[in-house]
Give the backbone structure.
Amino acid sequence: MAEPYAAGDPGRRPRSPRRKAVLAAVWVLVGAVILGGAGLGYLYFRLNGNLTSVDLDAKLGGDRPKDLPGGSMDILVLGSDSRAGENAKYGRDGGGARSDTAMIVHVYEDRKRASVVSIPRDTLVDRPECRREDGDTAPAAERAMFNESYSVGGPACTVKTVEKMTGVRMDHFVEVDFSGFKRMVDQLGGVEITTREDIDDPDSHLDLKAGTHTLDGEQALGLVRTRKGVGDGSDLGRIELQQVFVKALVQQVGEVDLLTSPAKLIGLADTATKSITTDKDLGSVNELRRLAESLGDIGPDDMQMVTLPVTFDAQDRNRVVPLEKESAQVWEALRADRPIPRSALKDTAGGQPGSDRVVTAPPPGPGDLAEVAPGSGAQAAGR
């Protein structure tokens, strides 16, 4: 696994002119549509009205890691597994939503690279004291499952737990729910992946034969949720599927020709703003557009994707615990705005990916994307 090139490295491959032009033109069009000339002003208010935001600063107070100097940015991205509404068919609601997927996205100061750290939902952590949604206080807990933080105190408790684990202050928070995820994939016209084995998992509504597929929203959701369909059925294997899919999704967003279909662009913007919850500072169309513009040079080949270094818990093999030394290397690298070192990713639960790949994403031009080994639970990298 090679680390991303440093800024200014002469070995860095230039982004293709076509991709740069598409990204730039798309966001120019987004600005024109959202901020809209005559007769389009209503769309700005409509999209703004779709957004849901959470005032994390008010909920978390001042007991947080320091906001380090420099222009790097850390965003906590969550996928909610609430079984309410359209999500009910994916299982019974066992007492509220939990964070089914959690990724820390570290955007480097140069805005040309990102590292993404996935946190397994079954990780045992020391959860801090959190304020519940009803205003009561939930006491701190040792050896709590990471994803329980969301059901205890919503996004604020999850952010507080992540900041306690990492010592990294989260600048922003974005949550996407099941049904919203499906609609966004469908609005894009699907996302292409290749399976080299049959995948059949009735629990996640996924049945794919070996081969190349353009997944619709339902299939994409099944892929990122399947545990039994590939490998040993662990959450670590599922995380690697999620990482491959995220890269394929980024690739698709960068290449889809929205310029010839303003209606499709508006539909995607409408779906996206209805599907996400953000922190208060991102809770407007203008701020989301600024964020998107600042990330426009980051393609799938510029993303280093890893899983939190963990090992199986000695008391319960269905749970994992962070490897102290290796995890510390990951968080230290993010605080220092450096790529995550390979030394932090050795000898973690599941081993390293081998040559027998199960799921791949299309390469972004001359480069290769990360691939997933069956049930490996190892760390996938962008290079």
